[in-house]
Amino acid sequence: MSKIDGRTIDGGQVVPTNNFVLVKVVAAKEETEGGILLTGKSKIQKTEGTVVSVGPGKTHPDTGAVIVMPVVEGDNVVYGEFDGTEIDIDGDKHTLIRDDDILIKFTGDELTLDSCSAVRDSILVYVETKETSTEGGILIASTKNTQNRPSTGKVVKVGPGRFATNGELMDMEIEEGDYVKFRDFAGNEIEINDEEYTVVHALDILAKF
């Protein structure tokens, strides 16, 4: 028996449907690196967790092709701050998110560049914070003091691609090492090893160089 949202359920197993993913949320950080204890709303909430179970995947409405899920049980994921629907299972905080809400997945206990992978047609871009140049001599201006979010950077991770209507995977046009320009305000910011990155979809990439 399990207690789900305060209700005792026989069997008590939560099984996601369609393209939903059940994630056990990482506990809020109780202390800063300097040793300062955090209480109440001051606790640092992380939008990441471990995949407990996954749905069968969504079906394309026209062809009936099943779109394969990008994660499996045991994967760790980072998702959008406002994504998901919370559910309490035996006193532990969980959330149900869609596969499209996943920004990045990683293995092990810590999110690092080595441990993470992009999903679907997502691209992880290192956001330049100082003036630099590409190998071809093209200057990329500093973005740290601009009002707009950075929209230029270097590709460090590329997902396997998105699925066509028949369920087959389509190749990506972007490769690791490319410099890209993407739509202003597109994507989601993410921090890895104290560096700023942006996760964008391939369709938001305007140019590569």
Automatic annotation (TrEMBL):
* Single GO cellular component term: mitochondrion
Organism's domain of life?
Eukaryota
InterPro entries registered for this protein in UniProt: Chaperonin_GroES, Chaperonin_GroES_sf, GroES-like_sf
Any one GO MF term held by the record is:
metal ion binding
Q: Which segment of the chain is annotated as a signal peptide?
A: none
Which Pfam families does this UniProt record tie to the protein?
Cpn10
Record bears the keyword Transmembrane: no
Keywords on record: Chaperone
What family does the Swiss-Prot or TrEMBL record give for this protein? Belongs to the GroES chaperonin family.
Q: What is this protein called?
A: 20 kDa chaperonin, chloroplastic
